[in-house]
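Why Arginine deiminase? Reviewers of the renewal asked for a concrete example.
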Amino acid sequence: MDTVRVNNEVGRLKRVLVHRPGPETRRFPHGEFALAFPLRPTSSDFDLARAQDEHDALTTILRAEGAEVVELTELVGETLAFAPEAKDELLDRFLANCRIEGSELTEAATRYMSEAADAEQFVTRLFNGIRYGDTDLDASDRFPLAALTDSAFDPDTFLSSPLNTAFFTRDPLSVIGGGISLNHMYWHDRNREVDLLQTVAEHHPCFADTPQWFGHDSSFHLEGGDIVNLSGHAVAIGLSSRTESLAIDRLSQGLLWGDGSSVTDVYVIEVPQSGNRLHLDAYLSPIDGDTFVVDPLLAREPRVYRLRRARRRGGVRIEPCSEGLARILGAATGGGPVRLIDFGDGGGPMAFEYGNGAAGILPLAPGNLCVCAENLAANEALVDAGMTVHPVSIQEMTVGFGGPNSLCLPLVREDL
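Here is what the prediction returned.
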């Protein structure tokens, strides 16, 4: 089996990367939840036991449908065990993205990490974060005047905050065809998740010679939720609040001109912004070979651009697409007619369901879908359209920021 190959979003799911929420989600400085989860302003706690139950239910469905489930922490641990020399390289990148400034703080964090007994503990420490109290910085003999004047380091404050959003595995890395994009996240702290995956991509033997279409060192923001594989030759990229046009320019150049890429057409779709729906995959989901779920906000007046190779090597030619979304998607997936399904205009129960990942569907195979259990009207519409649905509750993990697709990174799918 290929290590990575995703030419579409609906072929049978063969291998998928996930992360089961762990103790990192319970590490709050002084018990103050908002300091650890600033992106959950309406929440006051994270129920880890419930989140783990949700995640276990999701992975049970994945395995029952024949997918190999790969845990992120285990994959990183395997990489470091295979290539111990990668540990220092990872730590340097990771601490740089923690914005730790100055030699004293950097050296203290490095000493703490270097004391990890093995690769497993090293990875656990990266995920759990580094408090000042974990290091020797708050020892009274290190900074005696600061200790005497009660201005020393607070032992409960984090030098490196926990990776408490790492279970959203779709965003940091994307698989496009037989290559990958190491994305540059909008929120700076999440770039540490990309650091982990960059180490895997560069040092794990299963990823040897995997081409990279976009590099994490880019100056421009790109997130995986805005990348939707339409076919072996076409990919859709959302122009959104999380993915900027400059990044799309760079990724398109890599896809259209990169060695080993089969992509000939990149469709850039401007993404509406509504509530917690941030990425293209919250508005557009392929669910069968010729069927898509499309949010009415996107379908109503889509603004789409088609990017192809220009005559000059490395150049990109751009043309606006004036056709309707059905014709655009039909051309991208082989030229035949496609069916667009929407769940209504957002009134009644759909006001909740659109904001609860109704379009954030994870296909397990063509017409075989993992969906949010709470979206009763949307799920009924899918069944009426001939689809098989596997409902799963993920409320504690996502709080409306995506559906099951946001919690899974497909590594290998069958071609259609």
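Residues 34 and 40 are 7 Å apart (CA to CA). This is the kind of structural detail the renewal will allow us to pursue systematically.
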